[in-house]
Amino acid sequence: MRDRLGKLYQLFDHEDSLLILIDADPDSIASALALKRLLRGHLTTRIISPIRPITRPQNLTMVRLLEIPLAPFDQIRAADFNRFALVDSQPSHNPRFSEFSYDLIIDHHPLNAHTQAPFLDIRPEYGSNSTILTEYLRLAKIKPSLKLATALYYAIKTDTRNFERSSNEADMRAFHFLFRYTRHALVRRIESTELSLEMLEYFKQGLNACKRLNDRMYCFVGRAPNPDILVILAEFLLRVVEIGWSFVGGVYQDNLIVIFRNDGIRKQAGKLATRAFGKLGSAGGHASSARAEIPLAQLPSLPKPERLEVWRQFLIDRIEGNWRLKKTRPAAPAPQTE
Ligand SMILES: [Mn+2]
User: Fold this and answer.
1) What residues flank ion ligand 1 with Cβ within 5 A?
2) Distances (CA, A) of 42 to 17, 239, 293
């Protein structure tokens, strides 16, 4: 590890201008911020640029409250930089990324065969990329500022879903280390800002357009400003005690998107999604969460998405139809009654 830190510092000259590219989510934002801090005093220019605009309210709150300086991609000129870094992603993850050749890549996604850089640190066994960067900071004996620590702490929290998703000992250690430097009120504030006013409108519309069948709630919200609102609504509905499943559909760009959520108790959302929609588009997921995306071209018989009830009935038919299939077990041999 110590060798790696030395190698990282040797990579750059003081006059270099470094562009750090990210596909902004909490983990990539915090990783970029940590890399920037790590290279303070080693490099005069270090700019972080998200390759597309940030839209998630929580990510916007994170950037605003922690005053994270970001340069929008369309406002930077690649010619102003002679060094490039990528964190929490690999070039193959986005066509924009693959336009650059990188001096440094630090990531925790599985290594892609085409990923290469003079400095390459890929650790798929880590739950969060911010854990790797926290290790570098500790190695360099850098005490993180309140804002940097809060960003890293929040990133580990979200990428591991509060350690419910895969993580390892290192994530735990980094989390524990950052705890004392973190402003927890800021984390709470960031976490709580899930909705924008625009989303609230869809929330209202979505709740009005729901239909309950036993413990299953079906909603169709029409055209959605982004798929996040569907996820938020589906997760919100599960907070209702009588509800064990939620299915929320909406049209985003040229696709019907259906979000599946359940309480996680002996249920198979991924399999149900595949059975209900797999023939029409991509569908699948985990036991308690799944998603289907169907090109509208596959659904020529459906009217405009503004006809909420027709679309909701389509979801109900596809899902309930396959639901009953699931319940059908091979018939038990008839008892011999003579
Ligand atoms: Mn990540």
Assistant:
1) 27, 88, 129, 159
2) 11, 50, 46
Q: Identify the CATH homologous superfamily for domain 2-192.
A: inorganic pyrophosphatase (n-terminal core) (3.90.1640.10)
Q: Where are the domains positioned within the chain?
A: 2-192, 199-327
Q: Which residue carries 């309480």 as its tokens?
A: 263
- Cα(267) to ligand 1 centroid in Å equals 27
The architecture that CATH gives domain 199-327 is: Roll (3.10)
Output phi, psi for 132, to 5 deg: -60, -45
pTM of the model: 0.77
Distance of CA 132 from the midpoint of ligand 1 (Å): 10
Ligand 1 center–CA 73 separation, angstroms: 20
Measured CA distances, 221 to 50, 168, 198, 295 (Å): 29, 38, 13, 17
Distance of CA 277 from the midpoint of ligand 1 (Å): 29
Taking the C-alpha atoms of residue 324 and residue 296, their distance in angstroms, rounded to an integer, is 26
78, 92 Cβ separation under 8 angstroms: no
Q: Among candidates 225, 245, 226, 250, which has minimal Cα distance to 235?
A: 245
**Model confidence over 225-236: pLDDT tens digits?**
888 889 999 999
If you measure from the C-alpha of residue 174 to the centroid of ligand 1, how many angstroms do you get, rounded to a whole number? 14
CA of 1 to the centre of ligand 1 (A): 20
Residues 31-83 pLDDT 10s: 999 999 999 999 989 999 999 999 889 999 999 999 999 999 999 999 999 99
